[in-house]
Amino acid sequence: MTDNVGTDPQYDGFADEFLDHARDGFYNAYVDRPACLDLLGDVDGRTVLDAACGPGLYAEELVARGARLLGLDQSPRMIELCHRRVPSGDFRVHELAEPLHWLPDASVDLILFALAMEYVDDRPAMLREFRRVLRPGGALVLSRLHPTGDWLRHGGSYFDVRVVEEVWSQGWRVRYWLAPLERTCDELADAGFLIERLREPRPRPDAAAVDPRRYERLSREPTGFLAIRAVPRPGD
C-alpha cells in the first residue's frame, strides 16, 4: 500500500451508483446528513461552501433552506450531477488539497465537509484554506468515519496514521486514511480552528423501521461517523 491516497477521483467511476445509494441509504440519509445539517444550523441567506459536494444531496437540502451554495468536488461526474440537481449552485471540479484560488479571504459563512477528510493527503493545507475563506463568526462542519470503527475493521494500532484499501459491499474499491481522533483534533487546531461541538451521531428514530439491525447496532456501537463543528480561533 502506498503512503498516500493520490488525486485520482475515486468516486468518478461509480458516481451515478453512489447517488442512488446515498439518496436513501441508511448511513447517509439517517445518520450523517441529519447530523451535519443540524450542526450547520440556520443557513438562510448565508453563503455555504459544500466541499466534496458529491452528487449534490446536501447541496439540494441547503438551497431548499435558503443558502447561497458553492460546491466543489474532484470528480467531474459528481459535478455534472450537482449541476442537474441544483441548477442555482455554483459548482466546479477542484482537488481539495489545492488552494481555493477563486475564493477571497473571509468570503463564506459556512463550510460543509462531509465524509471526505480521509481522502485528502495534505489535510493541513486544505484546512488552512478553509480557515482563510471563512468569515469571522463562520464555522466548519465536517464528518469523518469514526476512528474506532476503522480500527475495529482493520486492526493494527489505533494510533497509526496510514492508508488502507477497502472494497465496500457495493463492490466499490476505495483508498483512504486511517487516523486517530487526536490527529483530526490536532490538524484542526494547527489550522486555526477551535472545536465547538463534537458528535457521535446515532441513527434518526425513524431509521428503526428502515433497517432494525443496523439501527440497533449503530445506536450502541461507535462504528459509524464523527461530526464536528469547528470555529475560527480568535486572533489567528
From TrEMBL:
InterPro entries in the record: Methyltransf_11, SAM-dependent_MTases_sf
GO molecular function, one term: S-adenosylmethionine-dependent methyltransferase activity
GO biological process per UniProt: methylation
Keywords for the protein's UniProt record, in alphabetical order: Methyltransferase, Transferase, Ubiquinone
Domain Methyltransferase type: 49-142
PANTHER family per the UniProt record, alphabetical: METHYLTRANSFERASE (PTHR43591)
Protein name as it appears in the record: Methylase involved in ubiquinone/menaquinone biosynthesis
Organismal lineage: Bacteria, Bacillati, Actinomycetota, Actinomycetes, Pseudonocardiales
